[in-house]
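Hey, resending since the last one bounced:
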Amino acid sequence: MKAILLISHGSQSPKTKQEVKALVKILKKQSKILIFKYAFLEIESPSIPVGIDQCVNEGATHVVVLLNFLNSGKHVDIDIPTIIRQASKKYPQVLITITKPVGQHPRIVDLFLDMLNEK
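The structure tokens again:
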């Protein structure tokens, strides 16, 4: 069973966690994927390892780590893959894959143009 784990950086602001929770609720409903969780790299909880644990405990055999990061950088290129490698060792029976950052998606230009047209 496929699970999605949307991960964000984390913030001191409680508003950030509420926005992430709201996004996951909408994505889960529209995607019809039964296991759809969120986690944070730092500052906020749950952590990425805990999020993966939650997915596996609910029966996931494939966890797609959905990056809620705009661009590549230390977190995307080093920190998150390191966490995923550790989780893969803990759960060798589970396939864990990572998406590209949002900024590398081909429709990012359309999104930004839409935002500009709103102003």
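The mean pLDDT is 96.

Sorry for the duplicate.
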